[in-house]
Amino acid sequence: MATEARGPAYDVAVIGLGAMGSAALSHLAARGKRVVGIERFRLGHERGSSHGESRAIRLGYFEHPSYVPLVRRAYENWNALERRTGESVLVTTGIVEAGHPGGVLVEGSLAACRLHDIDHELLEPSEVRRRFPAILLPDGYRAMWQPQGGIVKADLASALYIQTARADGAEILTETKVLGIEPGAASIRIVCETRTIEAGAVVVCAGGWIADIVPELRPVLSLSRMALTWYRPKRPELFGLGALPVFAVENEDDIVYGFPDFVGTGFKCASHFSSGRIVHADDARQDAGPADEARTRSFLERFLPDGAGDLVAMKTCIYTMTPDEDFVIDRSPADPRIVIASPCSGHGFKFASVIGEVLADLALEGETGHDISRFRIGRFADPAGR
Ligand SMILES: Cc1cc2nc3c(=O)[nH]c(=O)nc-3n(C[C@H](O)[C@H](O)[C@H](O)COP(=O)(O)OP(=O)(O)OC[C@H]3O[C@@H](n4cnc5c(N)ncnc54)[C@H](O)[C@@H]3O)c2cc1C
Known about the structure:
With 386 residues, the protein is α+β, with helices and mostly antiparallel strands. The chain has helices at 19-30, 68-85, 105-115, 125-131, 154-167, 210-213, 290-303, 352-365, and strands at residues 10-15, 35-38, 55-57, 90-92, 95-99, 121-123, 142-146, 150-152, 171-173, 178-183, 188-192, 196-204, 222-232, 246-250, 255-259, 267-271, 277-278, 310-321, 328-331, 338-342. The chain folds into two domains: 10-50 and 155-220 and 324-379, FAD/NAD(P)-binding domain; 70-149 and 222-321, D-Amino Acid Oxidase, Chain A, domain 2 (2-Layer Sandwich), CATH 3.30.9. Helices cover 24% and strands 27% of the residues. The longest helix is centred in the N-terminal third of the chain and has 18 residues, at 68-85. The structure holds flavin-adenine dinucleotide (FAD).
């Protein structure tokens, strides 16, 4: 263990190695820094928010157009990871977003596509049916096609960032729970159950547990239980790659999204809305049940009836929600050497490749060239200052 005189053993310590922490660790190690990644469970565990074979990626961004430059950079960084590792992390399937009249999904994506000149096409329900026979939209629904939308292979992406971080000299501690961080004059002490670590800066990417380490976030974050379902379609030929794109459909009381069966595990779909609040992330369980199946099956019977075959699997996962559903990416007001990242609200994974870069910038330079003004932690204390 380093003494105060020699300086901390690590330039940066990353707490939590889900999608964000693994990407941050890789970007930091690639810059030749002495870095350590600390994960309380095993790598690839299913207790948090990043597990599973797939996450959707899309350019025209209904949540807010200001996300588009970040998604563009995310694509570039995912491609850079693919070039470095020789693995394909992205699967381009295109994305169909559709919704009832007055919905937010299509209007928001359309506005972002027009503002940022993103390739897109408005489609009538009949044209969606002609191109993608699995999708049955009622008359009056609007739909939009974005050809560059698709899938990020989630588990693989995080594993490749860990692999590249290790290759660049990063140290990784698993089954090591951080209990707290103590800023000192020359370094920050990270107190774990089994040891203490000293680092010049800390990046906290603890997902649903982040408020345990950054208590000032506890009043603003809430945890949602999310359930995912996989089905064996009645007509599998309509649900494979090339036949079905990634899709999201907004009806009167739900937004349900899904993926083609690209790895033989069945056709995956899920609701974007919570199926229950979680008080603490430790309470989350892999307890998906009949009510979760009923929710997506009733949606499928209306909008993708040929998909409502035998149930193959179900999983749960955590959304860490902010009140405005925007991310928190900032340096701690208490100590700028502490970088805080809670980029979730159910839409963060696609950005992991650029958020890793931003977190490395903030930890090493104290600033980043990417526009993260929307993600300030102070906005909750002073919403008017947004
Ligand atoms: C069902 C579902 C569907 C989603 N779909 C999409 C999608 O289609 N597209 C998209 O872009 N995003 C999507 N998301 C969001 C995305 O998956 C998340 O934003 C992202 O995975 C968050 O990553 P994270 O690294 O912040 O959190 P996590 O993966 O939860 O990582 C946090 C890590 O910190 C560790 N940790 C916590 N406390 C400690 C401690 N004290 N000491 C050490 N380690 C600790 C945890 O064990 C965990 O590994 C979805 C999320 C869910 C749940």
